[in-house]
Design brief:
The protein is about 70% helix and about 0% strand. It is built from 17 helices and two strands. The chain has a two-stranded antiparallel sheet with strand order 1-2. The chain binds geranylgeranyl diphosphate. Geranylgeranyl diphosphate binds next to helix 6, helix 10 and helix 11. One of its GO terms (cellular component) is cytoplasm. Pfam families: polyprenyl_synt (PF00348). One of its GO terms (molecular function) is metal ion binding.
Length: about 325
């Protein structure tokens, strides 16, 4: 989706980076000349940042789930949790903590917890009674390796561990903040969060749904967990209520953006370019943004969501906000 940044940010041809001088007014904190640190923030290397954070999250997840008795259950937990994902939720938690001046170690337990919850949602989503998918992250899905019963209780164990991990491993954070983070994750995955999105999705199968229902599904299935990750990062990092609300609105835009882009790629890319079956949504009759509003309007919606996401970061330090600003652009620009 190069057109998103091309139109929004007037990216210099061939540079692959956004020169500070070319940033649109909406992405600037102030109208004066920007300083060296801010110019560096605009040249931010998101790929290196994400690789570095993902490596540390993986090491922390590895420590959080040692292979102990009963071995097969813990092997199953580790199989899904440590498989190669993008780690967007945990990175969002760490970046949000650092946005408000907290350090990485403080947010690592909430970062690990959100990846555990994300892993549960993928394990359960792949089950024959749900999406019935045999492949996940390029390897056989959990139930194909460990069996359906083990896949279900692996999810149960990971949910319990996620909450235990936040409560027991978050260090040097006032207890009321940890408690708020626990409540945030509970609300994010519950019957008005992720589970609600999944329920409405299943319930809508085979029915003609409008934009309102489509949006409800994506805001609950995808955006809600991202919102919670960002919110918990700010909570343990010492941020105030207004900062929590800003990052939640940012993450909500990013979550919706992720889905709009997914739908657009399905109809604009080949199977080779995507690395998964292109045109699957159309073939299965799935309701998508391009189907409901047309490709051009869906592309406009993606652009609007990037602008809205970035606008939520305007009140924060530009340098500290660089990872989140570039993450939104990365999600808009991804090609597969
Ligand atoms: C109680 C946690 C819990 C869940 C039960 C099954 C279920 C309810 C919800 C399913 C939610 C679901 C599968 C949402 C999709 C979210 C999403 C955008 C997944 C795509 O993730 P990738 O492929 O992730 O971008 P990785 O981590 O592989 O990079």
């Amino acid at each position: 989706m190069a057109y998103v940044t091309a139109r929004l940010l007037a990216r210099a041809p061939g540079s692959g980076r956004v020169p500070a001088a070319l940033l649109s007014a909406s992405t600037r904190l102030h109208d004066g000349p920007i300083g060296q640190a801010e110019a560096a923030a605009d040249r931010f290397d998101l790929t290196a940042y994400m690789a570095d954070k993902a490596r540390r999250v993986d090491a922390a997840l590895d420590r959080a789930v040692p292979l102990r008795y009963p071995e097969q259950l813990h092997e199953s937990m580790r199989y899904s949790l440590l498989s190669a994902g993008k780690r967007i939720c945990p990175i969002l938690a760490l970046a949000s903590c650092e946005l408000v001046g907290g350090d990485e170690a403080t947010a690592m337990p909430v970062a690990c917890a959100v990846e555990m919850l994300h892993a549960v949602s993928l394990i359960h989503d792949d089950l024959p009674c749900m999406d019935n998918d045999d492949l996940r992250r390029g390897q056989p899905s959990n139930h194909r390796v460990f069996g359906e019963g083990t896949a279900v209780i692996t999810g149960d164990a990971l949910i319990a561990l996620a909450f235990e991990h936040v409560a027991a491993s978050t260090a040097r954070v006032p207890a009321d903040r940890v408690l708020r983070a626990v409540a945030e994750y509970g609300s994010a995955i519950g019957s008005e969060g992720l589970v609600a999105g999944q329920f409405v999705d299943i319930d809508s199968e085979g029915k003609a749904v409008g934009v309102g229902v489509l949006e409800y599904i994506h805001l609950h299935k995808t955006a809600r967990l991202l919102e919670a990750a960002a919110a918990c990062g700010v909570m343990v990092g010492g941020g105030g209520d207004a900062e929590v609300e800003s990052v939640k609105r940012y993450a909500r835009c990013v979550g919706q953006l992720f889905q709009v882009v997914d739908d657009i790629l399905d109809v604009t890319k080949t199977t080779e370019e995507l690395g998964k079956t292109a045109g699957k949504d159309v073939a299965s009759g799935k309701t998508t943004y391009p189907k409901l509003m047309g490709l051009e309007k869906a592309q406009e919606l993606a652009q609007t969501l990037v602008v809205k996401a970035e606008a939520e970061l305007h009140g924060f330090d530009r340098v500290k906000a660089a990872p989140l600003r570039h993450l939104a652009r990365y999600i808009a620009d991804r090609q597969n």
